[in-house]
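Consider the following input, taken from an annotated entry for ATP-binding protein (Kitasatospora saccharophila).
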Amino acid sequence: MELNDARTQHTHPHLPPPRAPFHLPTWASAPRPEAAPGIYRQHHTPHDPKAAEQAKTPAGPLLLRAALNLLVAFFLYRYVVEAEVFLIQAVGLGTQLTSALANPIALLLGVVAAVLEIWVFGRMGRWREVGRRFLLPVLSHTVTEVPTTPEAVPVVDVWAELRPAGEAVRRLDGEPVGDVDYVRLHQAWRTVGTDPVAWQEFAQQLAARGAAACAHPSEQRDLPGGRAARHDLLVRQVRLGTAQDVPKNPVTHRNAGFALDPRVLGTSLLAVGPAGTGKTASLARPVAEALCLQALAGAACAVVVGAADADLGPDDWYDVVIAPGDPAAPYGLDLYGAVPHSDEAAARLADALLPDELAPRAESARAAMQQVVGPYRAAYGGYPGVRALRALLAGDEEGWAELGERLRKSGRWAEFEADLQQRERAHGRADDPGALLADRLALLDRPALAAGFSGGPDAKPAFAMRALEHPLRVRVKLPERSHPEAARILSRLLLGQFTQAAADRRDRELFAGLVLDDATAAVDAQAVRGVQRLRGANAGVVLLLRTLSDLPEALRAPLFGAVGNRMAFPGIAPWDGRLFSEAWGTHLVRETAVTHVPDTSGGTVRRAGRLVRKALSGTTAQTESVTTRDVERHRWSPSDLAHALPSGHAVISLTSVTGEQVPPLLVDLRH
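Applying the prediction step yields:
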């Protein structure tokens, strides 16, 4: 089965050239050995320590040593044979013999001598390694070079796992099936389990729709417009580059493909690098592409947040596109995330509204927001829109009067009386947090943004973060140019809502991933604590920063501790490199020191000779001493990270959700 799918039609300038037609049996049966985190497993050759040690010896010196040992062994054997003949004749045992080989005793002694010489000179000449490296490949190529007939190609039943579903599976044998279809159908089959009703429904869908059965609600079976990265959906990996063959990299990763997957992204990733170093093109877009493909396969849900002009894939990749400030955008954003508890939703919104410099007033602001949102929801049966919330926080008399009247009619006045009275007493005071929140809400209460947040009859359908239990693909385009401060508020709100919703999911079968293209304004103390909770929730975030200096100093170390994967791009500042260097720690390095001192040894004759040599050549005789010791050195120093990283590369350390760690790797992101 071959599939000429949409991946061969590339329009993006960074996309690779068209690939060969997709052949499902070849792809499904490709070797994928178990490997350490970060290694692209498809067609990977595991590291062989013995072969690597042998490969260190160049071929020339190895062959020369083997030839010299063979030559010495040959001449020595001749002398041994002649000595045997002489001794046998001397004792009268071989007087009538013309050849030593005809005598059984001489033959036995010759065999023993040959075995001893092969053992001694073979070890010194490393004949076994020569045979393994040079003779065996030639013999193997000669023996196996037989024309392959179509009958000799093994037949792989790629649908063996689905065969119990019945005759409907046979339809798949004659249809073009892509990797998304293959993974989606197997994912659906595993979900069916032993439920007979679900089993029957799966078989009916398979019989009616074939490879399109159990499709994503969008009915897409691949990403429109092609793929920019190389993916292996069978193990849910996306290949980003190649780990370099340098001493700083672990030997198990050298020259291996570098890839990310949910078991690594589940510990979250922090990437730091100045603008123009390829963070979006080399990291954010491939990860967003991988999450969207996995969502089509029914294995993930993706939320991708970035500026409207950020290259994070076309809108056709996504099911929900939210673009505040764009009248053509079909969806708005639920500022409360459809959280069932009003206090929780109010606290999250208050945290998002306050910038870092107002963090000391966060507690009073949360209380003020809760004193408004809770009573409003009890009175009206829903959360307030931006304009209504702003008016109540500012102390609008008509709004408060109507709110009180509705609470009395509903019989819930006593429940919220204390909150309403406390909020009323705070109105008009200089330190009223409600006035501060109202001023911050004014940044969202703009005509261009109102349709996305107002909550009124003209509002757009709102996306709520509570929908992360479904394989959705969401793209949020922040208005960074037209409304930069509103964009910062929304980025904080989205990160906070995601960490909260992902950790509170009942069904965690789907991997929930958030890609935040510029997380400078989104990281606060609440977000750091939320990221830490994601490790056990089958979820993770990818945070991109231009520099750590944009964050408050008190948040930098906690953020490094909250994420399991840390990535440094070329051109970072030395003070940023210091944090990476401290997080990656030190390791033992064998250091060799060579010292030269004047030679003062010997008696009068040697000293006189040295004086004559100095007079004739002008150089002083010296002795050389070599000292070797193990010392601790930084894996990557701040100076190396700031000045030695080549363009198109990055250094990244990994931690999987099971605790496996990979020290920092130098990765070429261009291959």
